[in-house]
Design goal:
By secondary structure, the chain is mostly beta strands. 0% of the residues lie in helices and 38% in strands. Strands 1-2-3 form a three-stranded antiparallel sheet, with no helix packed on it. β2 and β3 form a beta hairpin. It is elongated, with a radius of gyration of 13 Å. The relative contact order is 0.32.
């Protein structure tokens, strides 16, 4: 893996189809492995996807975190 991978963060409501994942402004091609989503609705469940790009072959990997609830 390269010394400087890039991360892109996606979010959707858990009740939506997987095709509904979207990025927020400033959540693409980041060099940091943390991101804070804003503008979320309280009491709602969200699914988060993170794509990491940057190995020497140019491959992309993805990780998922389903059912993350905001406090109501």
């Amino acid at each position: 893996m390269t010394a400087s991978p890039t991360y892109t963060y996606y979010i959707k409501q858990s009740s939506e189809q997987d095709t509904a994942y979207q990025t927020q402004a400033g959540s693409t091609n980041l060099s940091t492995n943390t991101y804070t989503f804003t503008g979320l609705t309280q009491g709602t469940s969200y699914d988060i996807k993170v794509e990491v790009t940057g190995d020497k072959a140019g491959n992309t990997g993805a990780g998922y975190l389903a059912g993350q609830n905001t406090q109501s």
